[in-house]
Design goal:
With 511 residues, this protein is mainly alpha-helical. The chain folds into 2 domains: 309 residues, Methane Monooxygenase Hydroxylase, Chain G, domain 1, CATH 1.20.58; 134 residues, no CATH class. 49% of the residues lie in helices and 7% in strands. It has 18 helices and 9 strands. The strands form 4 sheets. Strands 5-8-9 form a 3-stranded mixed beta sheet, covered by helices on one side. Helix 3 packs parallel to helix 5. The longest helix is centred in the last third of the chain and has 32 residues. It is globular, with a radius of gyration of 24 Å. The N and C termini lie far apart (55 Å). The N terminus is likely disordered.
Length: 511
């Protein structure tokens, strides 16, 4: 095989090594740790992230070398008969959301999808994980293009269920079943498996990566996805620090407590670097372009999958109901919550929907976090589950001699068991505070790109202008009745949800 441009950390990494690497000027990652590597596999990520967890904690594995990204560059284009999907996707570029078939280009493309795109078999892809991922990405993009290029409709009204043509629906459902992922566009599609190297010889550096597939071909959309990708690149170091802490818990001596505290201090610094990367989304992603031209393509909803029989009712086609891609689907951020023991369960009477599209839905923070896991790659879901199990209190775990009543791998439990003035407790709180700062920055970004933009009109001629004007009229009437500004807007619901997430993180601080 040729050279695979793997994303690699050094084979052995100490807390001191990580401290030294973080002392360098703030960059998403250092090029020295990410070099091309000869391999016998096109995708060495299949020694999957969930295998990091065993009965004794986090195992050293390729997951520590590439994090939640694939170990080698993703497949960028399907070949053979499946190239028909790529050609259909190429033809969709330039379509605008909500135009409907009154637009000639949209009409012709949608007709081609319905009448000319064949139902292609995917059995030959079963053991080719890299091409399966590309197939899921392309088919999911095609489905979202088909749904959102149509005329705007109120999906809450009867008989408004969008039927997905069988040329997309059948292979998408088949590929999704093989991957154990939902048949909809996900964060994994748009970020984890959606990049390529400009010059393979230069390896994985910020300047040497491009986002492969977008809806709009705009710099704003590419930068939006690339920002999340650069966050994920810090994942290997985060996982290494978690491993160091859990491994020290196995050693069971007083020195281990000191070493865990040191690892947590480095992790806090790293979380602050995650925050720096998130904040830089503003550099090249225009909020108005994001809200009115990019974000409309993301929405999920109920879909009827033509040609896919419903196993519960063979007389009808399968109906699916999923959301779209979201940074909330990042396994990295969830793993930090699990590792630090941040509890996102909603307090009584404080449940709030995180989805402005589904007002009144019984959905709180815990429900949201669990729902996001459904959209993750299956080995990422297993990783989170096994990490949580690893950190639970267990009588099988040897206790610290200095903490005879503690039996846990959980850094939070250890911190709670140490004196209030201990370095471990201070380091733990530093980590939680850093995670809180990350969430505050994310909230500001979300409010700027969603809540704020919802109050500004769409571009002249946009398919969304009529709906926006009607919404403003309704909101004006509500404000007049309630005498309170912004009451009842979808953005307000999002703001409440983000606030709850920040509060739950702050609650994890130990007094």
């Amino acid at each position: 095989m040729g050279v695979s441009n793997s994303i690699l950390l050094p084979d052995s990494t100490s807390s001191d090594d990580l401290k030294a690497s973080l002392a360098s000027p703030v960059r998403p990652f250092g090029s020295s740790s990410f070099k091309p590597k000869p391999t016998d596999s096109d995708d060495d990520s299949e020694t999957s992230a969930h295998q990091l967890v065993s009965d004794r904690g986090l195992d050293s594995d390729l997951g520590l070398r590439s994090g939640f990204l694939p170990g080698s560059p993703p497949v960028c284009r399907m070949d053979g008969s499946w190239a028909r999907w790529e050609e259909a996707l190429d033809a969709a570029r330039g379509l605008e959301p909500g135009r409907g078939e009154e637009d000639e280009d949209t009409r012709q493309w949608r007709r081609m999808i319905r009448e000319e795109l064949p139902v292609l078999e995917v059995d030959a892809l079963e053991h080719d994980i890299a091409r399966l991922r590309r197939a899921h990405l392309v088919l999911a993009f095609l489905m979202h293009f088909y749904v959102h290029s149509g005329k705007l409709v109120d999906e809450s009204m009867p008989n408004q269920l969008e039927k997905i043509p069988k040329g997309i629906a059948v292979p998408l459902c088949a590929v999704s079943k093989l991957l154990d992922m939902p048949p909809v566009l996900t964060y994994a599609d748009t970020v984890l498996y959606n990049w390529r190297l400009i010059n393979p010889a230069d390896g994985f550096t910020p300047e040497n990566i491009l986002i492969e597939t977008t809806f709009t071909n705009t710099p704003s959309e590419e930068h939006f996805f690339k920002t999340s990708l650069l966050v994920e690149v810090l994942g290997p170091t985060c996982l290494s620090l978690m491993k160091l802490a859990i491994d020290e818990a196995i050693v069971t001596d007083t020195l281990s407590v000191t070493r865990i505290a040191s690892s947590l201090l480095v992790l806090a610094t790293l979380i602050d670097r995650l925050r720096d990367v998130v904040e830089k989304v503003r550099d090249h992603c225009d909020p108005a372009i994001f809200y009115w031209q990019i974000r409309p393509w993301f929405h999920g909803g109920q879909r009827e999958m033509e040609g896919v029989v419903d196993s519960k009712d063979p007389s009808r086609w399968l109906i699916t109901d999923f959301g779209g891609p979201s940074a909330g689907q990042s396994t990295l951020i969830h793993s930090l919550d699990v590792f630090l023991g941040v509890d996102h369960r909603p307090h009584p009477s404080q449940t709030v929907s995180s989805n402005p599209m589904k007002q009144g839905a019984p959905s709180g923070e815990e429900t949201f976090m669990a729902r996001m896991a459904v959209y993750m790659p299956s080995h990422h879901r297993r990783f989170l589950s096994e990490l949580a199990a690893c950190l639970e209190n267990s009588s099988k775990i040897t206790t610290f001699p200095s903490l005879p009543h503690v039996a846990t791998h959980s850094v939070r439990s250890l911190a709670l068991a140490t004196p209030a003035t201990s370095d471990l407790r201070a380091s733990y709180n530093d980590c939680v505070s850093a995670l809180g700062r990350l969430r505050s920055t994310h909230s500001k970004v979300a409010l700027l790109y969603i809540v704020s933009q919802s109050r500004h009109p769409p571009p002249e001629g946009s398919a969304y202008m009529e709906g926006w004007l009607e919404k403003q009229k309704l909101e004006a009437e509500k404000r007049q009745e309630s005498k309170k500004a912004h009451l009842g807007t979808g953005g307000t619901d999002l703001a409440k949800f983000l606030k709850r997430c920040r509060e739950r993180t702050k609650d994890a601080l130990i007094d």
